[in-house]
Design a protein that fits this description.
Layout: E1 7-8, E2 26-34, E3 37-45, E4 54-61, E5 63-72, E6 75-83, E7 90-96, E8 105-110, E9 115-122, E10 125-133, E11 138-144, E12 153-158, E13 163-167, E14 169-170, E15 173-174, E16 178-181, E17 189-192, E18 201-206, E19 211-217, E20 223-230, E21 236-243, E22 252-258, E23 263-268, E24 270-271, E25 274-275, E26 279-282, E27 288-294, E28 303-308, E29 313-319, E30 324-331, E31 336-342, E32 351-356, E33 361-367, H1 389-400, H2 417-429
Antiparallel strand pairs: 1-2, 2-33, 3-4, 4-5, 5-6, 7-8, 8-9, 9-10, 11-12, 12-13, 13-16, 14-15, 17-18, 18-19, 19-20, 21-22, 22-23, 23-26, 24-25, 27-28, 28-29, 29-30, 31-32, 32-33
Length: about 425
């Protein structure tokens, strides 16, 4: 393992105001996992049932999916190949229990033959299952329950047929794909309840019209165009994901967008089922493409990770109360693409892995655990569990700003000497 200098994922000093930060998550170390030529899709699950996260990585020379079993602490054993057939071009992957037997199976897009193929997991051993025809040049693959029957369904964005393919799953048996017209060159597809009606919808990037299109689901697996969201006349959209941006419990939308000089994530906030005009969170890298979301800094909201294909970096976009700011640009291999966000080393925090298509590797960044919680109302600054001068400073800053974290005594909403007395009492009591 190549251990790098620790880099904070936080963009500002860890001084709590409205709510104490529940522990900073930082990049602790990184490693490069050698993979065969041109790695593309990546997925993670406990494939063999030993309680340790494993990785599956698609490569197209030779055409196969390599399964790397985790051995604990973020280490992986040698790969076991699943050969998909000559010139099939395995690309996007999803790890999901397709047949409901408790084992996590694999779904892979075979790009060169426009096919979705299932590999069924039986006790950690994979065997080829169904194959379903897709639209031309299928790329992005997502899984969600589109028809409400409890089984995971699939959708792909088909770049050369200007469509989405929707594949429904009934108890582990896949039906033929239905087609949803999108427009020019869709690269990404995301699934979420974007109109807040309790039914899963789809969103797809329409590169030629420089828009993101939303398709409302009818609850039985059919979709109809319901909204066309602008990006910007200068940029084209690529990846699309559902993410709860503002923490209100509904699905918002994010898309990577770029041109020669404009590189950003377009943010569309869901307001009672209506998606807003885009706000832009700029990245320092070039050609942002794949993106994923998770709570990387353990503060209770979803952050976004973006692969910058032409600058060989991965941007960490921190969610600051619904506003995204690039807090880190991690150096990856050549042409980073697909990502997986999960706990790979078993320490309780979310790690990041990204495939590097042109350097035949996967870069993994391990994060520290969330750390201790505040011990009392005076423990306002890290390190939590210790009361020191940084807590005094944090209180004074919050008190001056009339922030609720400094409103420690009745009457609530009034900042006066009683709050100072309450702080001094908690500070003097110390941590248990």
């Amino acid at each position: 393992m190549n251990t790098n200098t620790k880099k904070s994922l936080m963009a500002i000093p860890l001084v709590s105001l409205a709510t104490p930060v529940l522990g900073a998550v930082s990049i602790d170390s990184s490693m490069n996992l050698a993979t065969p030529s041109r790695p593309a899709g990546i997925a993670s699950a406990d494939f063999n049932g030993d309680g340790i996260a494993d990785l599956a990585i698609a490569t197209d020379l030779v055409d196969k999916v390599d399964v790397f079993l985790g051995t604990g602490g973020g280490a992986f054993g040698p790969s076991t190949p699943i050969f998909t057939g000559a010139n099939t071009g395995p690309d996007t992957l999803r790890a999901v229990d397709i047949d409901g037997d408790g084992d996590t199976d694999l779904a892979v897009v075979l790009n060169n033959i426009n096919t979705l193929r299932i590999y069924t997991n039986t006790g950690g051993v994979f065997s080829a299952g169904q194959s379903v025809a897709l639209g031309a040049e299928a790329r992005s693959l997502i899984s969600a329950d589109f028809d409400g029957n409890g089984s995971p369904d699939f959708a792909t964005a088909n770049r050369d047929s200007n469509s989405l393919s929707v594949v429904l799953n009934t108890g582990g048996v896949l039906g033929a794909a239905s087609s949803v017209a999108v427009g020019g060159e869709p690269r990404g597809v995301g699934a979420g309840d974007f109109n807040s009606d309790g039914i899963m919808d789809l969103a797809a990037s329409d590169r030629d019209s420089r828009t993101v299109k939303v398709f409302a689901g009818n609850g039985v697996g059919a979709f109809v165009l319901s909204a066309t969201l602008p990006t910007n006349p200068l940029v084209r959209p690529d990846g699309v994901i559902a993410v709860d941006i503002d923490g209100d419990g509904d699905d918002d939308l994010a898309s990577s967008v770029s041109d020669d000089v404009f590189n950003a994530v377009a943010i569309y906030t869901n307001n009672a089922g209506v998606l807003s005009a885009p706000a832009f969170a700029f990245v320092s890298g070039l050609n942002p493409s794949e993106l994923a979301a998770a709570d990387l800094d353990a503060d209770g909201d979803e952050d976004i990770v973006v692969s910058n294909s032409d600058s060989n970096t991965v941007s960490v976009m921190e969610n600051m109360g619904g506003i995204y700011t690039e807090s880190d640009a991690l150096v990856a291999g050549t042409r980073p693409g697909a990502q997986v966000l999960t706990d790979l080393d078993g320490n309780g925090s979310i790690d990041l892995a990204v495939t590097n298509r042109d350097s035949d590797s996967t870069t993994i960044w391990f994060t520290e655990g969330a750390g201790p919680l505040p011990c009392n109302s005076a423990d306002l600054a890290e390190p939590f569990g210790t009361l020191d001068f940084s807590d005094v400073t944090a209180f004074l800053v919050a008190f001056s700003a009339m922030d609720p974290s400094a409103d420690l005594a009745a009457p609530i909403g009034q900042f006066d000497f009683s709050d100072v007395v309450a702080f001094l009492g908690s500070f003097g009591a110390g941590c248990p």
